[in-house]
Amino acid sequence: MRPVVVLGATGSIGRQTLEVADRLGVPVAGLAARRAGDDLARLADRYPRATVVAVAPDPDGHDRFRRQYGDRYAPGPAALVEMAQHPGSTVVNGVVGSAGLESSIAALEAGNRLALANKESLVAGGELVMAAARHGELIPVDSEHSALFQCMVGERLPEVSRLVLTASGGPFRGRDREGLVSVGVDEALAHPTWNMGPRITIDSATLVNKGLEVIEAHFLFDLAFEKVDVVVHPQSIVHSLVEFVDGSLKAHLGVTDMRIPIQYALTYPQRSPGGFSRFDLTRSHLTFEAVDRDAFPALDLAYAAGRAGGTVPAAFNAADEVAVAAFLERRIGFLDIPAVIAEVLDGHEAFEATSIDVVMEADRAARRAARAAVERR
Ligand code: MG
Hints:
Layout: E1 4-7, H1 12-24, E2 28-33, H2 38-46, E3 51-54, H3 59-69, E4 73-75, H4 77-84, E5 90-93, H5 100-109, E6 113-116, H6 119-132, E7 137-140, H7 143-152, E8 160-167, H8 185-189, H9 198-206, H10 208-221, E9 228-232, E10 238-244, E11 249-253, H11 259-267, H12 298-308, H13 312-328, H14 336-347, H15 356-375
Parallel strand pairs: 1-2, 1-5, 2-3, 3-4, 5-6, 6-7, 8-9
Antiparallel strand pairs: 8-10, 10-11
Bound molecules: magnesium ion.
């Protein structure tokens, strides 16, 4: 199997990718993380053949890595992009944030397989990434998109009438707007079914995450926003569905374990046993309900951003990142998150997303606007 390069190696996706790679016997050719800290050093020691990149090392960490790893180590964003171009590899992009965009494009343009878990790549740079995907191979890792991808195997796009993304509904499912006014950070971090990093957990509670996934699905499968739906499914067993022109639905079901879609992205078109736990159909009770769009306005904001296109989805994502950070620092309330995003989108000067620079400039402008909106609260 092709060697794997893990961007965001110390994060949740990265650690699970390494576990899968070890079990499959896939060689690890590259490891990248934000900091040159103990977590990355442990991995660098465990995979002595891998090159090591720290995107934003502090001076002490940088000196230590230089001493310890010599030529195996390189710092900075350009080194991340270079690592993504490692020939003949599968690049797992689990970087958090818009820093993942450039490396996604670089991986695809180098002809690599991109196992994509970085949402910002498709949200902020969907057109650029899908253009680059013509040179390489793009396999989604996010559970919903992996499910859609798997339902699409052997099917023809013109025969798809609708994609249905499932949402767990997060910890606040069933609450109305009133009931969300005073929710705290700890409550919002307690996700009922998936164990993930802090930003994506908050994004699941606001449904921003589902909004980002709608935009991703639009680009990945080249379908209009009218053909991308969301349904709340609290058990998170049905990972998503595809509806066809004859009304047939194909669903992907399974236990909530990110190692499964990660493994599929590494082994596609084959499957491997993996020893994962099985879902017991006879003990199941699967329910579906509509999203409360009044309590969770972020979802419609995402649709609006997606339909507006150009740099607007990038602004949506950047505004959310700033708002979530402010919420986690207890500087704004839970309902301020969609309010900050709405304010930023209102004032955003949109451009066509013609280059990474244009997208990144929109990202920076939206961050400035979001910080100002946070200050005003
Ligand atoms: Mg997801």
